[in-house]
């Protein structure tokens, strides 16, 4: 691997950029946001997290001409057949709202006992060397939890205040940022990716 290889992050999320930089810079990567190359947001027309991550990665590769890292993630609730799934960010419609999404999820699970409220957060990371890469690196990781009947905690985002972690005795929103990075679906996926890339 070259001493500093550029990789484009197919996301406009500043938090994700910081997370990926902290892991990849020590490996000799220079992480650059897709906005630097005027990459447009792609329409996520895939039916799976993998398909959507591939769509984002391929477009950013095509425009930037550089290797790209893309992710797609969301919440899958067993009692809802895996919903909200790929629609996690817009579960309650537009404009995107964590609060509205959480309300809709609570309504959908109303009356269900705790034993039937199992769920997992999924994260798919795709590393693509070029737009026609026939063998992109694909990492999938998950994080098990249970959906509470009311939110707890101020941290995190998305469904974190409802995502109860029995082994920690708290929600994802109550974990410290460092602990969340250590245990979460995205943290696990990023560590697996770093292992593959190094």
Structural class: alpha/beta
How is the biggest beta sheet arranged?
A: 7 strands, mixed
How do the helices and strands follow one another from N- to C-terminus? EHEHEHEEEEHH
Mean pLDDT: 93
The count of DSSP E runs of length 2 or more, i.e. the number of strands, is: 7
End-to-end span in angstroms?
A: 9 Å
The DSSP helix count reads: 5
Q: What proportion of the residues form beta strands (DSSP E)?
A: 15-25%
Structure notes:
The protein has 198 residues and is an alpha/beta fold. The radius of gyration is 17 Å and the shape is globular. The model has no long low-confidence stretch (mean pLDDT 93). It contains 5 helices and 7 strands; from the N terminus they run βαβαβαββββαα. Strand 1, helix 1 (14-24) and strand 2 (29-33) form a beta-alpha-beta unit. It has a 7-stranded mixed beta sheet with strand order 2-1-3-4-5-6-7. The longest helix has 16 residues, at 49-64. Helix 4 (177-183) packs across helix 5 (185-197). It has helices at residues 14-24, 49-64, 98-109, 177-183, 185-197, and strands at 5-9, 29-33, 68-77, 118-128, 137-147, 163-165, 170-171.
Topology:
Layout: E1 5-9, H1 14-24, E2 29-33, H2 49-64, E3 68-77, H3 98-109, E4 118-128, E5 137-147, E6 163-165, E7 170-171, H4 177-183, H5 185-197
Can you give me a brief rundown of this structure?
The chain is 30% helix and 24% strand. It has 198 residues and is α/β, with parallel strands linked by helices.
């Amino acid at each position: 691997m070259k001493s500093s290889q550029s990789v484009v992050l197919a996301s406009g999320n500043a938090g994700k950029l910081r997370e990926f930089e902290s892991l990849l810079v020590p490996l000799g990567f220079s992480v650059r946001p897709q906005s630097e190359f005027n990459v447009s947001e792609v329409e996520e027309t895939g039916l799976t997290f993998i398909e959507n991550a591939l769509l984002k990665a391929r477009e950013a590769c095509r425009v930037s001409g550089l290797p790209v890292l893309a992710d797609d993630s969301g919440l899958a609730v067993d009692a809802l057949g895996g919903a909200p799934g790929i629609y996690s960010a817009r579960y309650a419609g537009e404009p995107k709202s964590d609060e509205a999404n959480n309300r809709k999820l609570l309504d959908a699970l109303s009356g269900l006992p705790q034993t039937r409220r199992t769920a997992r957060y999924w994260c798919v990371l795709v590393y693509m060397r070029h737009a026609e890469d026939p063998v992109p690196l694909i990492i999938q990781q998950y994080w098990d939890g249970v959906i509470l009947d009311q939110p707890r905690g101020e941290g995190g985002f998305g469904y974190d205040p409802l995502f109860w972690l029995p082994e920690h005795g708290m929600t994802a929103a109550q974990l410290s940022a460092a602990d969340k990075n250590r245990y979460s679906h995205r943290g696990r996926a990023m560590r697996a990716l770093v292992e593959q890339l190094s």
